[in-house]
Amino acid sequence: MIKEILAFIPIALVFMAFKSTLFSVIPLPDIPLLMVFYLAFRRPSVEGAAFAFVLGYMDDVLCGGIIGSTSFAYIVVFMLVHLAGQRLHFTTAFTRSGGAAIAVVLKGALVYAVVSSAGMHVRIFVDVLMQAILTGICAHKAIVLMSRLSARVVTSSFKGDIS
What we know:
globular, Arp2/3 complex 21 kDa subunit ARPC3, mainly alpha, 0% strand, single chain
């Protein structure tokens, strides 16, 4: 699990850097949220929840959000996807895309609740909707790529088995 997280952090960091500079006005799929989504249904653990918190914190720092708002949203999304994953199987493209789109809307609602409770009023409905659509479209392929990356990182061969 730690190897997967260490492989995902640089990807998320590069994505967030591009998102906050070059593509700040263009809606993009929420790749860090897809990482949280993947870890929540595939390998739920304390490390995954901590990774969700770190990703949210990095997003807030790099993209100028209220510190902790995205971390809070990612932790809640992680827990809810984990609970939903006990009832649903996110194995088809449709369930992955739908689940990811719903997770983006949930994240947007949670961030909006935190921001509005801080006395700021922003209109993010259209942005969240566009991001949900784009994330849903990209979800299945991104999750397949994350599975392949995880398989490459996690697999190791034991040449000298001590038994």
